[in-house]
Specification:
Structural class: alpha/beta
Distance between the termini: 44 Å
Number of helices: 7
Number of strands: 9
Helix content: 25-40%
Bound molecules: S-adenosylmethionine
């Protein structure tokens, strides 16, 4: 059965957006996943369709009401899979978390607006809080698109074997090596000679060296994890 994504938002017109194009769009057309967008405002009860109110305790901005958000979840939860709330306070999204989500039958994604969502409904619904990075967006919709884009490409059958995911950034614990295509010489700069050699073992070794250099220079955090994992692997072998 196809993977189901349910997005709860005050701005349903922002979807599918990028998720309707290219890889994710084609995968949806192929029936590998589905996207349902739910308008939270449709679950407001008063005649003004109010979804937010001022924060208790004072302070700037507005807070999304728990009763409205809860009704939206009750009316749209597919019956399986986690309910994700996108928030800067959440666990920062990374490739292992993306893969975990791609193994779920469904993911329900709650997009915040204003200052965020009343704490009580987050706890009552046991939501999984996820951040897409240490910065503040104006709403959860862009984050939902980022999250689902990353999850959809990990669904079985979405990325073809030829485009193999194995050597991508993070899969090996390293950032990717530099890429080159035609023309073989551009702006007076030739493609590194080893790539033209047809010698696969040398090419692999060169790419690994490059990936290691880039990771060491740019991401000391990834590099120390990689070195530790390599060391453990060696100890396991000896
Ligand atoms: N008052 C919140 C805070 O200080 O943490 C920021 C609220 S933000 C203006 C509005 C909404 O955007 C949030 O409820 C959340 O859904 C979304 N959002 C903002 N930054 C995000 C991030 N880094 N990752 C995921 N969602 C984010």
């Amino acid at each position: 059965t196809p993977f189901r994504a349910v997005v709860l938002t005050l701005f349903p017109e922002m979807f599918p957006g990028p998720l309707g194009h290219s890889l994710a769009g084609k995968a949806q057309a192929d029936g590998l996943w589905s996207l349902e967008t739910v308008d939270i405002r449709a679950f407001a009860r008063d005649k003004h369709r109010t979804v937010d109110d001022t924060p208790f305790g004072g302070g700037a901005g507005m807070v999304m009401r728990p009763d409205v958000v809860d009704a939206a979840i009750a009316g749209s939860y597919p019956g399986e899979g986690p309910i994700v709330y996108l928030t800067p306070r959440g666990r920062v999204l990374d490739q292992p978390l993306v893969k975990d989500l791609a193994r779920e039958p469904a993911v329900t994604v709650l997009c915040g607006r204003y200052e965020g969502v009343d704490q009580r409904v987050l706890e009552a619904r046991g939501v999984l809080e996820i951040s897409i990075g240490d910065f503040v967006l104006s709403g959860g919709e862009a984050a939902a698109i980022v999250l689902l884009d990353a999850v959809v490409r990990m669904l079985p059958g979405v990325v073809g074997k030829t485009e193999s995911l194995e050597h991508e950034s993070f899969e090996t614990g390293l950032l990717e090596h530099p890429l080159y295509t035609r023309p073989q010489e551009w702006n007076g700069i030739p493609v590194p000679e080893v790539l033209m050699s047809g010698h696969h073992a040398r090419i692999d070794a060169w790419r690994r060296d490059q990936a290691e250099d880039i990771t060491r220079q740019r991401r000391p955090d990834l590099w120390s994890r990689y070195v530790a994992a390599q060391k453990q692997e060696q100890e396991g072998r000896s």
